[in-house]
Amino acid sequence: MKLSVDWLNEFTPLSQIPFEKVLEKINTSICEIDDVEEFKLHLSSVITVKIKSLEKHPNAEKLSTTVATDGSKDYQIVTAATNVKVGDIVPLALPGTKLDGKEILDSELRGVRSQGMYCSEKELGLALESSGVLIFPNDTPLGISVRKFYLWEDTILTIDNKSITHRPDLWNHFGFARELASQLQLPLNEFPFQTDTKWESGNEGLVVEKTEHAHAYYVCSIKDVNIAPSNTKIKSRLEKCGIRSINNVVDVSNYLLLELGQPTHFFDRERLKSTTFSVSKSKEGDSFPLLDDTSPKLQKDLLLIQNGKDLVALAGVMGGKDSAVIDTTKNIVMESAVFKREDVRYTIRKTNIRTESAVRYEKGLDSYTCLPVIRRAVQLLKENGNPKIKVYEPQGFNHTESKSVTIQTNLSFLRHKLGKNISQNEVTEILNRLGFKVTNQGEELSVLVPKFRQNYDVTIPEDLVEEIGRTIGYASIQTQALSMAVETPIRNPLRELERRVKNFLALEVGFNEVYNYSFASQADSKLEAKEEHSSLKIANEMPDEHSLLRNSLFPGIIKQAKLNQDRFESVNLFELGRTYHKEGNGSELAEERRWMAILSLSKNKPNDLTAVELEFLQVRETISDLFQYLNLPKYKWEKTNRNYFHPNAGLVLSYDGIEIAELGILHTRFADDYDLKRRAILSKINMEKLVDVWEKQGRNSHFVPPSNFPQGQLDLSLLMNEKDTTESFVGLVQGMKIPELESVFVQTIFKGETVGEGKKSVTYRFRLMSYDKTFTQERFKELSDSLVDIAKKNGYSLR
């Protein structure tokens, strides 16, 4: 939003305050300023001059040599313009002026000196196209700048709209000046709302049907208007605020919008087919021409203005073209209304039409300005070329005329919320200054909110705290240490565990954490088939891909992997999040579960199964290391089948018989559904089960003093069927109770022609540790023979 400082000065004397202080107060107590700009500053050196003589250029057929005066000094100008003559008053750009990015120079044209350039309307920014030099009226004073002549000597403030979206009273010059006057303690001229207008008797037959679709709606008949250009003051102020001048009637409506923040509209009386006006809702497919030359097909329940049976406006958004004011208009009907902000917002959303009026209506205007703005409009119409108009009594209704908001509070509450010991007199003085009426009963306060702040803005005691705080300045409130007891915080074991797990995955093994929405599609909910029946549908339904609450973390993390599969060779992700399960509980609340999902994309070709299996083992080892990191060494891996894992590529991890985690390679049918080009190794950990085990056993000491003797190591390669689980032999070895055996794990798995079809070679690594003596060759051979012996006894062949 743009504000003219010159216009603001008309309502309150800002010129009495240093401009830097005004800007500081706006930024600290009212809103944010995006920009401060001197309007058309580059035209300060374009002055009005009168042509004294005009002759043909001696060396160029199409050029003329002129002498012009500003009343005290003469200038010799060479021009190609053909529409100027002696005695014309024209704009002259002096050397140093920059127009359209080019600097005007004192130079020679074909051997004749030229001390500047005459300007056209286009070059001054008055028109998109023009022919010839702009010629001013004969009574134009000489030697003044074009900025002064057109009332462009002004500073324009560009306000950040987001910072005043809750303050509809600030979306106009008078409202902003009123706020500044209260903050800077300056006098305020309230003339716009005190304009006195005498109505002609009668209403010229106009009738307004009462409806609940508007807070207030008025129309009045105005006769004998004369359509012409607006005066310089109104044209200048509209232009400075970014609005194009149209004519002296339409411009008044736009001027009122910028001055008072109350949208209005003028209809051509002769182009209306009825004298009855009503506010109604659209039917599906309704259509009529709008002012922007479009005729959109309207959806159901958009707010409309009807004249009889004809649709003449999108209420609060845009008027209709067929009833608009045109050059031949003589009689008009003025509309002043306040519509419900919810209805205007709905129209904006459904039509994608956003106008200056709609922007103000959607903030929530109060209806108290509806009638005063008509009086002000009449005054402006008379000042703007229509001194003899006849204005008849307004007709309409105001449902919220008696509305008032009173807030009950007390000094103790205000002081506590502010963090400052403010006096009762100071509170009363600040609120009175801001337009509130305060009644004191001891420390109890009854505060009547002014009408321009009562609609959605100031409604609760906390709003009064904000008003006082921003007025005294938040910087004046000293920072104080909290006065409270320092107590030992309550432990949250789940949070502690989550931090430890995330630290391990991110810092120890280099995985990247991702965050996904808690929403899912129907297809996503079917990945873990056993959970499909528990999908929880969102009541306020979004697009299909976000219509359910997720029952699995896998779809989200798979989609993240898909986005990164072509960008990085290594894609290792994890996500900590909740899933939601209704579990057939009827109207009861859904159950939440907490999971850690892990995904690692294979670096190898999907059909290189041997390499993929090795990567699978690496991820298994990572999860095993995580449990060691959490001081939970007694975990157990077992084979499992999950419909979303590849057959024979699924494991579950149990601890004391409790299933805590699962690990597998994503089934190819799901990989295809999500367009994964590489094999995905997936795992998830039930954080709620893990925290129970961690609390009970993770704090137990599993420390074993290090041995004084060196560690030993044995490798054993066995040939087994491709579908046999590798854990079977591990269980056999652990059952031998070998005292030196510290750990056993699968080192490699190999498949190929050399081992035969349907077979695989599995290499186990045994870590050995003795605490009483050094390993000898005899003991190594004894252990090796016992391992080979148990393998043969259970049908395994050595390789």
UniProtKB/TrEMBL annotation:
> SMART domains, from UniProt?
B3_4, B5, FDX-ACB
What does the note accompanying the cofactor annotation read?
Answer: Binds 2 magnesium ions per tetramer.
Summarize where Mg(2+) binds, as residue positions. 457, 463, 466-467
What cofactor does its activity depend on?
Mg(2+)
Swiss-Prot/TrEMBL catalytic activity: tRNA(Phe) + L-phenylalanine + ATP = L-phenylalanyl-tRNA(Phe) + AMP + diphosphate + H(+)
Q: Give the E.C. number(s).
A: 6.1.1.20
Q: Which GO terms describe its cellular component?
A: phenylalanine-tRNA ligase complex
Q: Which InterPro entries match?
A: aa-tRNA-synth_II/BPL/LPL (IPR045864), B3/B4_tRNA-bd (IPR005146), DNA-bd_dom_put_sf (IPR009061), Fdx_antiC-bd (IPR005121), Fdx_antiC-bd_sf (IPR036690), NA-bd_OB-fold (IPR012340), Phe-tRNA-ligase_IIc_bsu (IPR045060), Phe-tRNA-ligase_IIc_bsu_bact (IPR004532)
Residue ranges of every copy of the B5 domain listed in the record:
402-479
Regarding protein family, the annotation reads: Belongs to the phenylalanyl-tRNA synthetase beta subunit family. Type 1 subfamily.
| Self-association state and partner proteins as the record states | Tetramer of two alpha and two beta subunits.
Q: What is the recorded name of this protein?
A: Phenylalanine--tRNA ligase beta subunit
Q: What is the species listed in this Swiss-Prot or TrEMBL entry?
A: Leptospira bourretii
Lineage, highest ranks first: Bacteria, Pseudomonadati, Spirochaetota, Spirochaetia, Leptospirales
Q: Which gene encodes it?
A: pheT
